[in-house]
Design a protein that fits this description.
By secondary structure, the chain is mainly alpha-helical. It is built from three helices and no strands. α2 packs antiparallel against α3. The radius of gyration is 28 Å and the shape is rod-shaped.
């Protein structure tokens, strides 16, 4: 975790590959379509939760109508808190995926390729070959 934080906060001119003779020339910003991942996470976890809650609601409606028929007074087994509590894991998971995606998008920046004059003080073996 600490290593990831150190790499994420490193200045861009110090980012080098493992071989030390290669430098990142262009670092692109993430495309805004990356936010489709939280939408997929919401659909993948929200639809099954919605189906289970719908089945529970139907069963409880039938049970309540039977209780009214036999006892002549209405009882409430579940109020709105049950549906909210049952959907909390979906909300937290989707929110977490959205926040991670948002942080990754905001931390990605566009960096232009270095100019030729930045390589004047270096030897030619490190000078990139711009074709």
């Amino acid at each position: 975790m600490l290593l990831a934080m150190r790499i994420a906060n490193a200045p861009l001119n110090r980012i080098m590959s493992a071989t030390r003779n290669e430098t990142i020339l262009v670092q692109e910003r993430l495309h805004p379509a990356v936010f489709i991942l939280p939408v997929f996470a919401a659909l993948a976890t929200g639809l099954p939760t919605l189906m289970v809650l719908l089945m529970i609601h139907v069963v409880m409606t039938v049970f309540t109508s039977l209780m009214i028929q036999f006892t002549n007074h209405q009882i409430t087994l579940f109020n709105g808190y049950f549906y909210f509590l049952a959907s909390l894991p979906t909300i937290f998971f989707t929110g977490t995926v959205f926040m991670v995606t948002l942080v990754a998008y905001l931390k990605s920046t566009r960096v232009e390729a270095p100019s030729e004059d930045q390589f004047e003080n270096h030897d030619d073996s490190r000078k990139p070959n711009f074709v």
